[in-house]
Amino acid sequence: METIDSIRPLIAILASLLVIPLIMVSRKAPNLREMWTLAGAGLKFLTIVSMLPLVLAGTRIECTLVEVLPGYGLELRVDALGMLFALVSSFLWIVTSVYSIGYMRSLDEHDQTRYFSFFALSLSATVGVAFSANLLTLYLFYEMLTLSTYPLVTHHQDREARSAGRKYLFFILGTSIGMILPAMLYIALKTGTLEFASQGIVKGRISPQATTLLVLLFVFGFAKAAVMPFHAWLPAAMVAPTPVSALLHAVAVVKVGVFSIVRMITGIFGTGWLAELQLSTLVCTLAALTIVISSLIALSQDGLKRRLAFSTIGQLSYIVLGVALLSKSGMVGGMLHIGMHAFGKITLFFCAGAIFVATGVTNVSQMVGIGRRLPLTMSAFFIGALSVIGLPPCGGFISKWHLVIGTVEANQYLMLGVLLVSSLLNAAYFLPIVYRAFFCTPAESMFPGPAAEAPTWCLVPPLLTAGLSIILFIYPQPFLRLARLAIQAISGG
Amino acid sequence: MASLEGVTQHLPAIIVAVPLLAALAVTALWWFSNKLCYPLSVGAGLIALAASAGLFQQVLSYGVVEYRLGGWPPPWGIVFRVDHLNSLILVAVALVSFLNLAGSRVAAEKEFQEKVGAFYALYLLFTTGLFGILITGDAFNLYVLLEIASLTGYALIGIGSGRASLSGLNYVFMGTIGATLYLFGVGCLYVITGSLNMVDIGAILPNLWPSKVIVLAFLLCLGGLFVKMALFPLHGWLPNAYTYSPSVVSSLVAPLTTKVMIYAMVRVTLTIFTFDFAFNKISLQVPLVWLAVLAIIVGSLMALSQQRLKKMLAFIVVAEVGYMVGGFWLGNRAGMSGAVLHIINDALMTLCVFMAAGALSFRTGDDRLTSLKGMFRKMPLTMGAMVLGGLSLIGVPPTCGFFSKWYLISGGIEAGHYGFVAALIISSLVNIVLFFRCFEIAYFEPFSGSAGHQSGPMEPDDRSSTVVEAPADMLITLLTAAVLLIVLGIFSGQIVTRVIHQVIPALTG
Predict the structure, then answer these.
(1) Is pLDDT above 70 for A409?
(2) pLDDT value at position A180?
(3) CB distance B490–A147 less than 8 Å?
(4) Region of residue B195 (phi > 0: left; psi between -120 and 50: alpha; otherwise: beta)
(5) Which terminus of chain A has fewer Cβ atoms in its 10 Å neighbourhood, N or C?
(6) Which pLDDT score is estimated for B20?
(7) What is the predicted pLDDT for the residue at B226?
(8) Can you give A299-349 as a three-state secondary structure string?
């Protein structure tokens, strides 16, 4: 495999970091300020796209920054998996920025400069995680993401935000220091490296028992992946403004969690070694439990964003499950799901925000008949829901298809059952919303005055992402090829 | 050229002599004008910083620098001996004292008013003492300099109001006890070796190892230094001394005193008694690491129960002492490297948080945690520095605190000492609680009037207005310290491989 040195991954990370001073300086001129955000987002996305042809051609792009510990440096590397994730998150940042502008201005939110600054910082960290070449670099960006998201989660600065912020820190910072840090150090001492290698670095250097413990530490310790019982921060974090929930708690932050777990499984432990130790079933079981339990909880949630949050918890574990199956299709499905779920779920969050902006409604029970007032929003919602459930003609179907085949390949028929049951549950907590929105008549008192669609800036993004969800069904090639390349690198290397 | 060469030859003397002479000059000038004290002191601090940087460069290029006072050869004369270890720490100490000094003008004028000359003179004498401790190669000379630092530290702490004088007295009592124990230890060594030169004693001792006097001397020296560095349970003097002293003093004394004492422990153990004796002939290693574990846990828990910002930070210092003592006595390369690296990292991060606390209380006139309300809005840059300092103490990359913790935990795992590993992780978790409790108050609770806010005579602009961002010179030095935490973190790989590994004895396993 060909490897070239380039500072392009660094530019992709710094693009959003360097616009922060500009955002802060132009705090008095909101239009200029938002222009900087969009410029940063655009530059970031274009830089990442410019590396896509190289990655698709099988080249790896590397960039060594500095050796901070003897033998362990801060290094960036763009491979197929990282490219997939970076592509999704940087593209959706552009869309979310547009949406943020509409949302924050419609609601006349306070401290928008702080909001846009930390948003940009979060995205730097996200792409940093995607492009990390070793566990140390990944850990650095992971922590950076935790801290830069904290002010966004607690944006409202009220009592609820404070308790959500505490949960957020307790689960995410607590686990990363209490579990990931010692696990990482242990691996560094036993193996002398933290590099993500195609067959892992652990085999033959760490005993099977210790490996089992480490796997658990990483699966739970990357609490951003919200594998139960380390999930409670995610529903709490829904107090954040909706664009934050949309991008960070459906795409960037939570996917960083699963992405990190995927990296551990493929790059540190190595799929071969995990298969030898038969740890696949253990991780799959944890993921399966999370999927089923969270779907059941989602059924009972009346707050729309909370329902979406529990749905996210389940969907994240799909990815963990898929990769932990260790079968080819399962892993492709898991990786694809990073992208497919992102487009579906962000659409749903955008819609939740648009509904809130247009009508002030936040609960599912109040949304009876809302489809007549907000037909475009609710249509987008329907498409997003289909994608998350995994039905055609949406992208979510492609990833779920691969996951299902993956369970069969791995002879994990129980997991196949879990996937099917959970799809039914997904349908059960999403479709009634859509049905009632369009086909039931509201009590007239529920909507005083005329309700119109949300402002254009809030409306176009969900329509766009919904459209893309459909396009991804017809044309999943970019993600599919990246996922297959990533698998090839593991099995062929 | 010849004159420049002459200067570079005398760098070790310059480091000690310039602050000493400047202290005398400040005392004299003070009679004529208060205004001249600050620039003169800053100038002296800058020269000391430049000299220590130059010396560091020399050591990196040519190895150990030995400077004979009065030209007397060792072991008869006093020598200054600079190797990789102390040249590195010298730079850190000079930097910390210079930054704090440079940012002290407004606060010192407000705090001390007409006594400002005394403050600067004592400040310079205190740093002279610390530089001396770091640079000297003579065991008895070290004692003298300990006393200089201790007495001037006492005076500095005592200048404050309220309970400051009592805390200062406590400080000097405990400091004297510690120094006296150390002196007895040196006395024992002198009796059996007839030498006071550290390297000389180190060469003689192996022949005398069976002697019980050496063990006694070792215990006395170590015990004395433990008192001086406030290792649990000998830490009683520290929290009040750092809490009630004026802010500009606590941000000098807190980062430096304990760290320099840790250095003295490393120096005395490795150079005088040698590694072989301390780790192989005597079995103190295990109890000392466990003592450090206790220090970390107790310091962290005590910090949790504090209602005052500076007192909370003071207990964190107690815990941090445990980090370094524990790391050193693990006795392996990683642990010892971590301890030495943490000396400089901790000096800077303690400086950063104490300076931020000083800037906050300068504006609010209060250092209770409740006075932090609304501070992210009122003093965003000061709080930003506080956040960086806090993250470094928690150990979040890429701040320097992460890297020293990395070595310390590696050392613990390597040595199989999981108690120490657990203590470090618990302390990090407790630090999350400690700092985010402060950040929560400052972020979520709205600013509540200016209760207890006193406007100093030097800020006519602020007299009527509410709390605003700290004065520019205070802020610039504070932000410099905060940024240095990241710079130091990024260069910590270089520091360890190029500097620290030169002094840590090569060990196997």
Answers:
(1) yes
(2) 94
(3) no
(4) beta
(5) C
(6) 92
(7) 93
(8) HCCCEHHHHHHHHHHHHHHHHHHHHHHCCHHHHHHHHHHHHHHHHHHHHHH
pLDDT score recorded for residue B2: 52
Pick B457 or A339 by higher pLDDT.
A339
Q: What is the pLDDT of residue A249?
A: 84
Q: What are B462-497's pLDDT values in tens digits?
A: 433 567 888 888 899 999 999 999 999 999 888 888
Sequence-ordered list of residues with C-beta below 8 angstroms from that of B484, at least 6 positions apart, any chain: B95, B348
Residues of B with CB under 8 A from a CB of A: 391, 394-398, 403, 406, 409-410, 413-414, 421, 425, 428-429, 432, 436, 440, 443-444, 489-490, 492-494, 496-497
Residue B454 has what pLDDT? 45
CB atoms within 10 A of CB A274: 25
- Domain contains A261: no
What domain range is A489 assigned to? 289-493
Q: Give the tokens for residue B423.
A: 């203590």
d(CA A127, CA B491): 23
ipTM of the complex: 0.88
**Of the ranges A290-299, A313-322, B359-368, which one carries the lowest mean pLDDT score?**
B359-368
A143 neighbourhood in chain B, CB within 8 Å: 396-397
Take residue B201 and report the two structure tokens written for it.
């004693």
> Does some domain include residue A13?
no
Tokens of A390: 């995994």
Residues in A closer than 8 angstroms to B414, CB to CB, are 189
Grouping H, G, I as helix, E, B as strand and the rest as coil, residue B495 is helix
Letter for the amino acid at B219?
L
Identity of the residue in B410, B490, B496 whose CB atom sits nearest the CB atom of A185: B410
* Beta-carbon contacts below 8 Å between A and B: 74
Contacts of A270 (CB under 8 A, 6+ apart): A197, A199, A200, A201, A202, A203
Q: State residue B185's pLDDT score.
A: 94
Q: Helices B84-102 and B116-135 meet at what angle, rounded to 10?
A: 170
Nearest residue of B to residue A192, measured between CA atoms: B410
Out of B421, B428, B490, the one facing A177 most closely (by C-beta) is B428
pLDDT in tens, B28-85: 888 888 788 888 999 999 999 999 999 999 998 888 888 888 777 777 788 888 988 9
Q: Which of B381, B406, B487 to mutate to test the interface with A (most CBs of A within 10 A)?
A: B406
* Residue of B345, B349, B232, B224 whose CA lies nearest to B289: B232
User: Which of A143, A162, A177 lies nearest to residue B425, judging by beta carbons?
Assistant: A177
Does B493 sit within 8 Å of A140, measured CB to CB? no
Q: Is residue A478 part of a domain?
A: yes
Give the total number of structural domains in chain A.
1
Distance CA A182, CA A205 (A): 17
Residue segments in chain B with a per-residue pLDDT below the cut of 50: 1, 451-464, 508-509
What residues does each domain of chain B span?
Answer: 283-509
The reply to whether residue A177 touches residue B429, judged by beta carbons under 8 angstroms, is yes
Residue closest to A121 by CA, chosen among A99, A102, A93, A95: A93
Assigned token pair, B484: 């240095």
Please tell me the distance from the alpha carbon of residue A457 to that of residue A102, in angstroms, as a whole number: 5
Question: How far A118 CA sits from the closest chain B CA (Å)?
Answer: 13
- Chain A residues at the B interface, defined by Cβ less than 8 Å, are 66-70, 72-74, 136, 139-140, 143, 147, 151, 154, 157-159, 161-162, 165-166, 169, 173-174, 177-178, 181-182, 185-186, 188-189
Per-residue pLDDT, averaged over A148-169, amounts to 90
Does a structural domain hold residue A380?
A: yes
Beta strands A72-78 and B65-68: pairing type? Answer: unpaired
Using CB atoms, which residue from B409, B429, B493 is nearest to A68?
Answer: B493
| Residues forming a β-bridge with A77 | A62
